[in-house]
Amino acid sequence: MISNESLHSPACNRSNSQSSVDSASMEDFWREIESIKENSMGGQEEQMPAEVKPVDEGELEAEWLQDVGLSTLISGDEEEDGKALLSTLTRTQAAAVKKRYNTYTQTMRKKNKQSVRDVRDVFGVSDSPPDDFSCIPTPLLDATLDEEGISAIPCRNGQLPGDTCDNHPTQLDGTQEEKEVPGVIKTSGSLPDDASLNSTTLSDGSQDEEGTFAVPRSGSVSILETIPDIPVHSNGSASPGRPVQNSVSDDDYLEKNIPPDTEELSFEVSYSEMVTVAPKRNKFKKSDFKKEDYVLTKFIVQKTRFGLTEAGDLSAEDMKKIRHLSLIELTAFFDAFGIPLKRNKTEKVKGRDNGIFGVSLTVLLDNDRKKDPGVKVPLVLQKFFEKVEESGLESEGIFRLSGCTAKVKQYREELDAKFNADKFKWDKMCHREAAVMLKAFFRELPTSLFPVEYIPAFITLMERGPHIKVQFQALHLMVMALPDANRDTAQALMTFFNKVIANESKNRMSMWNISTVMAPNLFFSRSKHSDYEELLLANTAAHIIRLMLKYQKILWKVPSFLITQVRRMNEATMLLKKQLPSVKKLLRRKTIEREVASPKISKVLQKSPSARRMSDVPEGVIRVHAPLLSKVSMAIQLNSQTKAKDILAKFQYENSHGSSECIKIQNQRLYEIGGNIGQHCLDLDAYILDVYHVNPHAEWVIKPQSSF
Q1: pLDDT higher at 143 or 280
Q2: Can you tell me the distance from the alpha carbon of 516 to that of 2, in angstroms, rounded to the nearest whole number?
Q3: Beta-strand pair 699-704/621-625
Q4: Which one of 50, 193, 214, 648 is CB 3.0 to 4.6 Å from 135, fit for a cystine?
């Protein structure tokens, strides 16, 4: 965010459109800039980005397609994951992909480069305007029909149809011909100005005449019809999820009711779809930057019967899909406001291969995992946290003041040389030097912890004055789109800073103070900006950090509509992998012939472990495995009120003969593994029968929950 040209406080005249920028409230920011300047003049090595050649819009869109897991649209290769991803996109998500792919193809044609497919070859023909997207990519999903010739076109909301298609275009402008957003039924007229979820009713996802599909130009059809056409609620259930009384708020982790001064959030419906059904979004109350923390809305998230899911509760492979979907959804979200999510070409800065400072998070974690395979946050950063927590939480101005420059330089050199060998003496470092080096650690990363290229879009969004809920939704998607190392590190950092803020009465470090001090360290760019641009970027970055601190307990919850899409992706991928090429089908036929010749072997081969498991366990009964406990397996009869914590309590009772077992079970959680999910650590309040209906082929395992 900061550049060498902006190391002094600017003097600029503010117009009415600039009134949100309060330079008086940014004193901490400019003090931090001066400190950075002093450190850089003191001989700190600054990494300069490699020269970036000018790029055109087509290349940026190609990079975007790769970042969201759709590189197959560029390469033309047939790949199951890309097809599965396209089959699950919502209407607005598909429109965002179509728009960027169209830009890419047009640019390539102008350059007379390799032939590229017309956008209609990928997305089919529609009579709608370019931004009114009513069908998802279908020809890309085409493949050889199976033996029975069964195939269909997937629904635009990711659910697979059982009905025929028509060619009626879908409108996004709220006109009379508008098709209903998948998963949402309008109760009456248009939504109110704040687009409150209280004004909408979630449907069960069933197919009716409103759920129409466009027929592709080629007349070809998709192989995906063989996925069961189960009505899927937008939160992933097979029926509308009834909210339970438990809820998660930004202040109190669990609450029973919604106080009158709070606002409810829902993670069940796509944020971009919600925006498109709120035609009065331009009437949102103007939202100005204010440093008083109490002006921020208090949000509360009602738990559905599936509970809530932390980012760390899903498998690495599923979180990769969440990242791809989140970036598509974030782009679609800004598209709905008419705001381009433009990104400059990534600044190429070569990080160091060893040491601590200037080393990328992934390299640091690779080194740390040689000592602790489960670590998610760099160990040196955890040590900085510990040093400040030991004696610095009540130290006045802990992150505003600089430590001894000579000592800081000495400790930096020793950390680079000795930390990985476990030879650094932490007892000689005081909390003040630890705080200074914590800031330097983030400032000297090869790329900033948070994507500074998205800041202009956030600035435009905030200038349009949407409600704080809209800002939260955009930020939520940005957090979900972060790489694993950045997301986990950011979560640990916000947790740590909230401990500092909890001692504000003694250390004089408010949420706004922390935000303005850390803005130039967490959002930085080596590009050149004018003084006013620098101040505007700083103010926006500080506001974003403040939102992260305020809503830290809910920002790292994975939206359930994204989990639903991941489940559908996994189902589609499994189906696509069953559609074997002709050569493999021939080999399969030969195998079947051999099995017929050897009936005994055939019986064993035909009955897979999952099939045997399903035949052995009655409907509504699950077998839970607990390999680390003395009672390693138990059949559980589920009813509509059985929660994950009830199953854990039953295992605790059965294993309560020894005190060590009681301690063990307290650190255990129930997981669903396999089926249409990689791995999912279930919320203690999740109703297991509902999860079972969504994923009947899962295995159920009790094991320790992973942590930082």
Answers
A1: 280
A2: 13
A3: parallel
A4: 214
* Least confident segment among 115-124, 269-278, 509-518, 627-636: 115-124
Instruction: Give the pTM.
Output: 0.75
End-to-end CA distance of the chain: 28
- Beta strand 621-625 pairing with 633-637: antiparallel
- CB under 8 Å to 594, separation ≥6 — which residues? none
Looking at residues 125-148, what average pLDDT do you find? 38
Long-range contacts of 142-146 (CB under 8 A, 24+ apart): 142/218, 142/220, 142/221, 142/222, 142/223, 143/78, 143/222, 143/223, 143/576, 143/579, 144/223, 144/579, 144/581, 144/582, 145/221, 145/223, 146/223, 146/226, 146/579
- Render pLDDT for 597-606 as a digit per residue (tens, 0 to 9): 555 444 433 4
Compute the half-sphere exposure of residue 508: CA atoms within 13 Å on the CB side of its CA. Answer: 7
Token pair of 155 as six digits = 């629904």
User: Do 224 and 548 meet the contact criterion of CB atoms below 8 Å apart?
Assistant: no
DSSP-assigned beta bridge partners for residue 152: 223
- The mean of the pLDDT values for the chain is 74
> From CA 369, how far away is CA 82, in angstroms rounded?
31
Task: Render pLDDT for 321-346 as a digit per residue (tens, 0 to 9).
Answer: 999 999 999 999 999 999 998 766 55
For residues 163 and 158, what is the distance between their CA atoms, to the nearest angstrom? 14
Nearest to 237 by CA among 637, 695, 683: 695
Higher pLDDT, residue 31 or 395? 395
Contact 358, 444 (CB under 8 A): yes
Structure token pair of residue 564? 């639903």
